[in-house]
Amino acid sequence: LRDARDYLTKQTTEMCTVYGKEVLGIQTPQSQLTLCRELSLFPLLVLGLLKSEAFNDSATIHPDLRAQSAILLRTLPTDAWLSLIHPNFYSIHNMPQLAGTIDEKNGKCVFPPRANLCSEKLESHGCYMIENGQNIFIWVGKQAVPQLCKDLLGAPSVQELKSGQMAILPGIKTPISERLNNMIRNLRSERQVTYYPSIYVVKEDGDPALRARCLSHLLEDRQPTGPTTAGANQSTVSS
């Protein structure tokens, strides 16, 4: 595993160095490297590979999950492959009014703006969704207000909220719950793959293994399984 990670890192560095030397005429390593738009995304994709469950060197990843990830990386079509290594990250507690509704013009579900994959975006009172086509993680901050927990997941408070895998979210007759369920139904029906994404409710101060698995999808953080603490002020631990 370490050899594979080192190989990906070395090859990416060499490709960018050769591009700078042969195309841009950069002769000194200290010079700033400016990549074309297409190539500038390549290091990000490799970073996504390194943080995927197939190449992540964390000891907390179960061998079955690692094997499954390796198979998916070899077999998924391009669109699903990109979503797997570069997930989508949405803020749920403060999403725009139209998010989660159906656009009358095209009949598709409207999603909130995508956030950067960084723990700086996580606020302790917020709720977020991270999805990669295979799994949907609903992150609930440790200071989420009782009304949000009740309206969204049917729990009186975040302390009484159960974390872990579930087939569907509770069908609560509140606007935020209905909008979130609309987005999840859209994700499950629109993906051009046969896999049915699983839902995981993740509490900030809940199961450490599930928490680490969720945070490992935040590619812009330095730690392979996310920072020790996740909140609004993560400038010291994020890339």
TrEMBL record:
GO terms for molecular function: SNARE binding; zinc ion binding. Residues 112-183 form the Gelsolin-like domain. GO terms for biological process: COPII-coated vesicle cargo loading; intracellular protein transport. Residues 1-80 form the Sec23/Sec24 helical domain. This is COPII subunit. InterPro entries: ADF-H/Gelsolin-like_dom_sf, Gelsolin-like_dom, Gelsolin-like_dom_sf, Sec23/24_helical_dom, Sec23/24_helical_dom_sf, SEC23_SEC24_subfamily. It comes from the Eukaryota. GO terms for cellular component: COPII vesicle coat; endoplasmic reticulum exit site.
